[in-house]
Design goal:
The chain is mainly alpha-helical. The protein folds into two domains: 36 residues; 81 residues, no CATH class. The protein is 42% helix and 10% strand. It contains six helices and six strands; from the N terminus they run ααααββββαββα. The strands form three sheets. It has a two-stranded antiparallel sheet. A hairpin with a 5-residue loop joins β1 and β2. It is rod-shaped and about 80 Å long.
């Protein structure tokens, strides 16, 4: 028969939280914390696991039937794993053109909230287009 401390240790090694262990085994928080500290197991951090900007972009965008890639909210910021933020449009632009955009990034297709890499334009691209086709284009 395994001791209660061994059971606590097994659940800690499996990545279970202290709250889960105290509820499951009916032991005190202090006991679980003591076993965790004795084993040198770091604390579980609450919240979701960090994901890359690419993963966040892929998870949050919505593909339309007519070939657009929509950002679901008016808040375009994607938080990076390092704690910074980048807009979805700027990220898409960098993926397509391999450089940082200059000025504001907008959807050249005219569809609101579209962040498809093939559809985003930066300020120099819009100025060049206007110079060729006129400002009414």
């Amino acid at each position: 028969m395994t001791s209660i401390n061994d059971q606590v240790a097994d659940l800690l090694r499996a990545g279970r939280s202290i709250a889960h262990i105290t509820t499951t085994l009916h032991v005190s928080y202090a006991r679980v914390r003591t076993v965790r500290d004795q084993l040198g197991i770091p604390r579980n951090k609450p919240g979701s696991k960090p994901e890359s900007v690419e993963e966040t972009f892929r998870r949050r965008t919505i593909t339309t039937d007519d070939g657009h890639l929509l950002w679901p909210t008016t808040d375009y910021h994607i938080k990076t794993v390092e704690g910074a933020a980048i807009s979805a449009g700027r990220y898409a632009f960098g993926q397509k053109y391999g450089r940082r955009p200059v000025g504001k990034v907008q959807a050249g297709c005219g569809v609101p909230r579209c962040v498809h890499p093939d559809h985003v334009e930066d300020q120099p691209m819009r100025q060049q287009y206007a110079a060729i086709f006129g400002s009414a284009a």
